[in-house]
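DATA SHEET
Item: assembly model
Revision: 1
Owner: S.N.
Input lines:
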Amino acid sequence: DGGITQSPKYLFRKEGQNVTLSCEQNLNHDAMYWYRQDPGQGLRLIYYSQIVNDFQKGDIAEGYSVSREKKESFPLTVTSAQKNPTAFYLCASSGSQETQYFGPGTRLLVL
Amino acid sequence: AQSVTQPDIHITVSEGASLELRCNYSYGATPYLFWYVQSPGQGLQLLLKYFSGDTLVQGIKGFEAEFKRSQSSFNLRKPSVHWSDAAEYFCAVGEGGSYIPTFGRGTSLIVHP
């Protein structure tokens, strides 16, 4: 089945630690996105990539980094510079006309 | 820049009752419009989308939405709500070529038995 997978489902971060969230898609989509979701705030765009080896900052990129070495993969690293990382993280991809398809999400918690 | 307003943070309906969730957008040209649903702890699932043509769009799970250019609205409707429809609903608007839709803040649907 075609779709988007995110792993892990839950992730725990210690103070000062970098953690990486995985996002893989087999939809052959060019564009991929990372969103952060906090209660009552909807979706906020962290980073997006419209093509391999290229990506742009979204509205809240500080404290995060990404890479896009393969079309299928768009991992997100939450660095120690992100002081409030506890949130639900959603990955999405789109092929055309901005129709985004979402993964199941990763919940990041701080120990 | 485009923007999306979902005026209702919470909506409560009884099972079997009809439903209408409101969405207003701000955009100069004809936008691309979407409705998504999110169950607790899950990702977003696309319910329906409008790009052009017939202004009444049918989606999955018995939902429909109507694009009204004069009112800048794209309201989501369902004639009879089921308890399993309880979820968060997001409206989104995009403009051609940008690949980055703007999402509303969401409306939480509560269904009473």
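QC remark: The radius of gyration of chain A is 13 Å.
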